[in-house]
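Sequence only, no structure available. Ideas?
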Amino acid sequence: MNTKYLTGKLAVLLALCLFGCKKNEIERPEFNATVNKSTYKVGDTVVFNMEGNPDFVTFYSGEYGNDYAYIGGRTLDIKSFKLAFQTRVRNGNQPNQFSVHISNNFNGKFDIESVRSGNFQDITSMFTLSTVNTVYANSGEVDLTPMVTDKTKPLYIGFRYICKPQTAASGPNGTQRNWDVRELTLKTLTNIGETTAIDQLSGAWSLVESGAILEEGRNTVNLSSGLITLRGNATAAGKLVETEAWAISKAVDLNTVILGPDKSIPVKSLSETLVPLFSHVYTQPGTYKVVFVYTNHRIEGKKTALKEIEITVEP
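Reply:
I predicted one. Tokens follow.
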């Protein structure tokens, strides 16, 4: 076959390929934003002059929750944490059955050996417990921050219930009592205020039981409310043995709060025409880095660029 013919044919194919690739190439988006001045007062309307026509434009003011620097996520250090709950005691007269504990040395294995070796600290005396039969009592809100020296480890909350061998009401041990726990909150304080780390339901309580006879259903966690109920055995044989039960929360991170990424404000979508003006009002003084993110997004892919503007807001 003629060599010149082959060379010419290959050149034509290469040219067609290059033309097709260039035709499908995504264009770099064109956009610009400017302001008439860089310093404003709190409450002023900051007007941005915009030009171009990218497929999408979004806006970050530089304020909390709308800051491009935190699109990958934002974490806050926990300064303090407080625990509160309600208890109710019913029936019986056996004393000292119920206690409140915390640990940040527990290995997270919900078996009695791990719990007993988990360095759970008894903090019962810091709270008010129910003393009136069938009446719920508020524990009071207690600051646990001084009790936890290593915040890099997760915290576990545990409610312990011991039922000694039951005797008649006038005997040395007495009869078992029913203890209920509800309305629990563990609140954390950060620079932006107070949030709830866990509540009664989200505590995801695990039951750990020990005893020669363990009667089914005596210790329970309600699936819909998280209500904890701890009780001793009820049968004649079961009453003769000592039992131990724990309701232990899931691990709680007390080092940081993860808030997720800051969100943008949409300015233009694919079906819209870019308006020439966009405005924003700052309510707090400070220096803010404004970021416009503009993108061309097609089936073949996308190209994104940033326009940054520094704004100073005075009181």
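Confidence is low (pLDDT under 50) at residues 10-22.
Hope that gets you unstuck.
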